[in-house]
Amino acid sequence: MKILMIHDHFPNEEHGIYTHTHHLSNELLKRHEIEQLNVITPMMCKIDGKKDNYLDYPFSKYFYLPQQIKKKIDEIKPDIVHIHGTHPPYSLLPFILKKNYKVVITLHGIVAIDSKNSIKGRLFLKNYLYGFLEKTAIRKADRLIAVSPAIKNIVEKKGANPSKISVIPNGINISEHENIKKLRNLNHPSLFFIGRLVKQKGVDILIKSLPIIQESIQNIHLYIAGSGPQYKKLNILIEKLNLQNNVTFLGYIKGEEKISYYESIDICVIPSSFESFSFTTLEAMASGKPVVASNVGGIPYLVDDGDTGFLFEFGDYCELAKKIIELLENKKLSEEMGKLAKKKAERFSWSSITDETVKLYEKTLRE
User: Fold this and answer.
1) Sorting pLDDT into bands at 50, 70 and 90, what band is 49?
2) What contacts 237, CB < 8 A, 6 or more positions away?
3) pLDDT higher than 70, residue 170
4) Do 355 and 341 share a structural domain?
5) Is 52 in the same domain as 149?
6) N or C terminus: fewer CB in 10 A for the chain?
7) What's the confidence (pLDDT) of residue 9?
8) pLDDT of 254-270, one tens digit each?
């Protein structure tokens, strides 16, 4: 079976979609013939010495790209075209390829939700035009993969046939989280957030919970890893609440350094307004750490409230503080949750995720 993966995220990017396609492709390569078509712009990057198929294009010809992609697909002649994402130009491909190729789309997110965090001037275009194209694409594709039940439910409401939607989550390499030395021995209760510093991630809510936590645990410390447009606003909030000695910004971290922080801290916090799946949650679980997270999107699919961590209502920083205090004051509970979290994370190995994906390919080809 020859499979073509199509995405637009460049190598070494710490991004959920690239992480997904990279690991899935590596597993598929052990069993089948796999090609990748990475659609990038000169403004994004230039990559040399890579065997993948790269298609550079200028923004001025953005909507001509589907025909360029089709030409490349015709050269490769795959059995399955697996598209990651539904924003243009990918949302146009099911129309062009429908008669000649079997098309599978993995929905890593939903355009209408993702666009809430876009530049204001582009909101109308994304919400209406992109949303319309996405809705039509999911109806035209042969098969759809949702990374969580939450995404599956949203896609069904957009008119997709429930019988052609499968939930196949993101995976993780558990081995990467084994035998990692702690970055440091922290001598204080510690919280960890990692992600983009954008409004959707709810970092301000986490910061607002700290004064409440301090009433019970004075030496609490929050480590924030990541960068983004909210950085200045978050710093202003920290100064306003007089938390300068309780918060450390780590900037962008990755690889072993990132995993070392997971190993070093007590609790990982995910205060987002929405997450399609949340790689961060799965990474924390794989490190044996309890997670306190918003009860939104795909997070409840990972976090079993009261077993592998705690869920709280998005925006309620008082409830968030209460859950964090409970874990920090009960070390036995925290350790038990961490063990259960790691055990659950082991079910999301890339090998098992690939097994499910191959079965879906085979079913699609039979139809």
Assistant:
1) very low
2) 204, 207, 208
3) yes
4) no
5) yes
6) C
7) 60
8) 888 999 999 999 999 99
| CA–CA gap between residue 220 and residue 308 (Å, rounded) | 22
Query: What CATH number should be reported for the domain holding residue 148?
Result: 3.40.50.2000
Both tokens of 135, joined, read 């809705």
Question: Model confidence over 194-227: pLDDT tens digits?
Answer: 999 999 999 999 999 999 999 999 899 999 999 9
Q: What percent of the chain has pLDDT over 90?
A: 59
Structural contact between residues 7 and 17, judged by C-beta atoms closer than 8 angstroms: yes
Tallying the residues shown for the chain, one arrives at: 367
- Residues 357, 343 within the same domain: no
What are the beta bridge partners of residue 312?
A: 294
Can you give the pLDDT at residue 44?
A: 39
Residue 294, domain extent = 174-347
Torsion of CA 111, 112, 115, 117, to 10 degrees: -120
Do residue 292 and residue 354 come from a single domain? no
Assess whether pLDDT exceeds 80 at residue 89. Answer: no
**pTM for this structure?**
0.87
**Residue 129 pLDDT greater than 80, yes or no:** no
Reported for 51-59, long-range contacts at CB under 8 A and 24+ positions apart, including other chains, are: 52/11
Average pLDDT over residues 243-250: 97
Do 162 and 146 belong to one domain?
yes
CB–CB of 338/290 below 8 Å?
yes
Number of domains in the chain: 2
pLDDT for 336 equals 98
Same domain, 224 and 183: yes
Is the Cβ–Cβ distance between 206 and 191 less than 8 Å? yes
- Two structure tokens written together for 329: 């004051």
